[in-house]
Amino acid sequence: MEIDRRDLLRLGLGTFVAAGTALNGWPSRDSTLGAAQRAASAAFTPDVELALTAGAGEARILPGAPTQVWRFSGRVIKGPAATLQPLPDSYLGPVIRLKRGQKVRIRFSHTLSEPSIVHWHGLDVPDAADGHPRLAIPAGAEYVYEFEVINRAGTYWYHPHPHMRTGPQVNQGMAGMLIVSDDEEAAAGLPSGPQELLCVLQDRRFDAKNQLVYPPGMMEQELGFVGDRVLVNGRERPTIPVATRAYRMRFLNGSNARVYKLAWKDGTPMTLLGTDGGLLERATTIPFLTLAPAQRAELLVDLAGRAAGDKLELVSAEYPTRDVSMTMGGMMMGGGGTQPVQGSPFSILTLDVARREPARFRLPDRLSTFHDSWRPKTDAPVRTVPLSFRAMQWFIGGRQFEMDGVAADETVAAGSTHVWELTNTSGMMGTPVAHPIHLHGRQFRVLDRRNSPATSAVAAGVVDAGWMDTVLVLPGETVRIQVPFTEFPGLYLYHCHILEHEDMGMMRNFRVER
Ligand code: C2O
Ligand code: CU
Ligand code: CU
Atom of ligand 1 at shortest distance to CA of 294? Predict the structure, then answer.
């Protein structure tokens, strides 16, 4: 569905939108926030101890003037120096590399002008280490995280999670990859070292002085903020020199709202190795990959048959905006320009086969084994969680975020398994919009999808094969997920990972009780 100004006037939203151009779109900050601190506990002996800080800095992103960003930087206090690996030429946070079983302490502090707190997206950790907004700290304070890595090997990430400010802080540069390895993964013998390519995809918008544009106007906030340039680790359309051998590519969609339709431009099928929660049991071949905000995917690309000088271009293929969102129909937005929309085509990166290297790689038949909780549990309690919109607000489970609020149907026993039925049938102005729904805590699986849109150009690229922590619920769909909840008691979040939706309150707590 396309909306133009006439429709908005008919819907009585004309003045609202006009006001949105002047408003900065953000509610005032709550001054009671940012009081939490947490000190190291004497009872916890870490194998790895890190200091992670966040502060203002500069990055060279576009030709010309540098861009003001907010960035993470880190330091290893104890443990292997390779635990932290800066992404070369990037303003993103250092890659944190952990091993399953490690006990980790991370000391977080910042010098930002507003409270912040870090969340380890995809990790199953005690609630005090989960980065809930109630734990946000002011500049100068320290929050100490202590947890053991119990997750499977996989591509995870970290980003801030303060109350109503996640979108702007991530947009400003606060995000990083967190990679967990384990013995099972090592046994699969996948390409590593220089044959492992990390790709954080983020769309951004810049003004004429190369500065990041945010916040969005009110209407764009309703739809989610999308940029008109796609950056890979903070660089636009990088060319990556490679050899004639196999590569493992780890992708993170670190965008606030953009859904990518990733494909090799020359039509080469994609070999998918893993999803949010690590390796699949077996690699699978897909024509293209629909990657929603916060989702990760691992691909294998074998260039052994290529000639030196060959180029392999990764694109986000064009799709109709309505397949995930609505469009403003070219309406003038805040800055006087036309708002970028979902579904625009982009060139993402190019692999440039620069040299021949004799190396043969054979993909193992089995990459990993899923634990028992993968099997469908027919007696699991079922809860319906509508994703809905009314009075210009998004709702999840019929409610909006309350800092400490938890309803009875949001309470689960530690370690219990539930089926949540995410229904996306009543959308904005009657038109459903796709929502990437994320649960903190344990990884879940997708059981099935119902009422999937028949003509969607992105549906065939949606992967339900592996462990997930973020699932894209397409317009009109009902997606059933089976969630083995964390064993840690406490308060955790579930929310839409369109960061503007999250910041607007499309987020709730669930309580895990022992
Ligand atoms: Cu990636 Cu609650 O977040
Ligand atoms: Cu998370
Ligand atoms: Cu949403």
Answer: 1
Average pLDDT, the chain: 91
According to DSSP, residue 432 is labeled -
What is the C-alpha separation between 430 and 476, in angstroms, rounded? 10
Residue 503 has pLDDT above 50, yes or no: yes
CB proximity list for 375: less than 8 A, separation 6 or greater: none
Mean of pLDDT values over 350-362: 93
pLDDT of residue 430: 78
Length of the chain: 514
How do residues 464-498 score in pLDDT, each as one tens digit? 999 999 999 999 999 999 999 999 999 999 999 99
Domains of the chain with bracketed CATH = 5-181 (2.60.40.420), 193-355 (2.60.40.420), 372-513 (2.60.40.420)
Residue 121 CA, ligand 1 centroid: distance in Å: 5
Task: Sort strands 270-275 and 296-302 into parallel, antiparallel or unpaired.
Answer: antiparallel
Label the pairing between strands 154-160 and 118-121: antiparallel
Instruction: Tokens 């000639």: give the residue.
Output: 307
Q: For ligand 1, which residues put their CB under 6 angstroms from it?
A: 119, 121, 159, 161, 294, 438, 440, 493, 495, 497
Given the CA of residue 122, which atom of ligand 1 is nearest to it?
1
**Concatenated DSSP letters of 317-344:** ----GGGT--B-TT-B-TTSSBPP-TT-
